[in-house]
């Protein structure tokens, strides 16, 4: 079995290779047909390639160990890649809208529709399979960059399927106006995808807390493992890429020794690290006079 870091590097490099292959296929489909809808698909594949390269850089950087200048690690580097991807998606959508308007005014006719659509369908199948793999891999590794790339590819697949169906109708009916209309629909879908990626990534850069479900799990673990303490208060969490930082105040009896308090902390930390992948735990011990007795976990 390869080491996780080697596997991550391999997956990131594979994304670049697949993006190149898909881009070549989609531009071949556009070149064969002259379809602005297929042009929009091909243009988005350039974004796929750019973001795959950015993701490779960010993922490599995020796995560097902590150093004197970045004492909490480099986990957030992946969010910068995801934000860049969101911005590029929006730019691609605007370029597609421009091309759709030009095509609408010129009333371009389709050529070699069968060959072009077949090529595009192959590219779509490759993207779909890779997107499913990236979702599984990214969620398992808590990687914002891989998950953002998977969402983008999924958006691309949905757009491509819509384009395929629409262009089949164009070929059957001769309604060339459907071609730029499909491009507009693709552009709107891409805009929504870009906004979602930017929103989620900025939330990570702003240290958003874990979900309510994860926080409930954290509280349950602390309550179970903190036997001997009095209560916990000021529980705070924040996401930083694949890392989750957890900190809280642990109130213990005033007569408890430092060694006994440390045993409780070790027990809680070990349980959290086992249940919450990537957790970094900081516990501040306080004497019982600091107990708040409200809005806390009372043990």
UniProtKB/TrEMBL annotation:
> Where does the record say this protein resides?
Cell membrane
The Cation efflux protein transmembrane domain is annotated at 14-206
GO terms classed as biological process: intracellular zinc ion homeostasis
Question: Origin, by domain of life?
Answer: Bacteria
Domain named Cation efflux protein cytoplasmic: which ranges? Answer: 211-288
GO cellular component terms, semicolon-separated: plasma membrane
Q: Which UniProt keywords apply?
A: Cell membrane, Membrane, Transmembrane, Transmembrane helix, Transport
Membrane topology, as annotated, equals: Multi-pass membrane protein
Q: Which Pfam families match?
A: Cation_efflux, ZT_dimer
- Specify whether Transmembrane is a keyword of the entry: yes
Transmembrane stretches in the record are: 7-30, 36-59, 79-97, 117-135, 156-175, 181-198
For this protein, the record's InterPro entries field holds:
Cation_efflux, Cation_efflux_CTD, Cation_efflux_CTD_sf, Cation_efflux_TM, Cation_efflux_TMD_sf, CDF_Transporter
A GO molecular-function descriptor: zinc efflux antiporter activity
| Family listed | Belongs to the cation diffusion facilitator (CDF) transporter (TC 2.A.4) family.
Q: What is this protein called?
A: Protein p34
Give the organism, scientific name: Kaistia nematophila
């Amino acid at each position: 079995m390869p080491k996780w870091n080697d596997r991550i590097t391999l997956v990131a490099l594979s994304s670049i290779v697949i993006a190149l292959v898909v881009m070549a296929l989609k531009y071949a489909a556009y070149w064969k047909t002259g379809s602005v809808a297929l042009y929009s698909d091909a243009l988005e594949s350039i974004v796929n390639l750019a973001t795959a390269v950015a993701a490779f850089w960010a993922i490599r950087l995020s796995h560097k160990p902590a150093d004197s200048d970045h004492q909490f690690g480099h986990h957030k580097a992946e969010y910068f890649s995801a934000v860049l991807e969101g911005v590029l998606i929006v730019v691609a959508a605007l370029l597609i809208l421009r091309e759709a308007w030009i095509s609408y005014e010129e009333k371009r006719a389709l050529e070699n529709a069968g060959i072009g659509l077949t090529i595009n369908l192959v590219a779509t199948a490759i993207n779909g399979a890779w997107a499913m793999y990236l979702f599984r891999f990214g969620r398992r590794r808590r990687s914002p960059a891989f998950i953002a790339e998977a969402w983008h590819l999924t958006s691309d697949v949905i757009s491509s399927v819509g384009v395929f169906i629409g262009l089949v109708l164009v070929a059957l009916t001769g309604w060339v106006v459907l071609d730029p209309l499909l491009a507009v629909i693709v552009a709107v879908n891409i805009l929504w995808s870009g906004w979602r990626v930017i929103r989620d990534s900025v939330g990570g850069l702003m240290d958003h807390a874990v979900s309510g479900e994860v926080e409930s799990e954290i509280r349950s673990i602390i309550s179970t493992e903190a036997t001997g303490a009095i209560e916990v208060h000021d529980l705070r969490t924040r996401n930083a890429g694949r890392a989750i930082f957890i900190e809280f105040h642990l109130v213990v009896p005033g007569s408890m020794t430092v060694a006994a308090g440390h045993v409780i902390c070790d027990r809680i930390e070990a349980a959290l690290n086992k249940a919450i992948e990537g957790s970094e735990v900081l516990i501040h011990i306080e004497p019982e006079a600091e107990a708040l007795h409200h809005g806390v976990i009372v043990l």
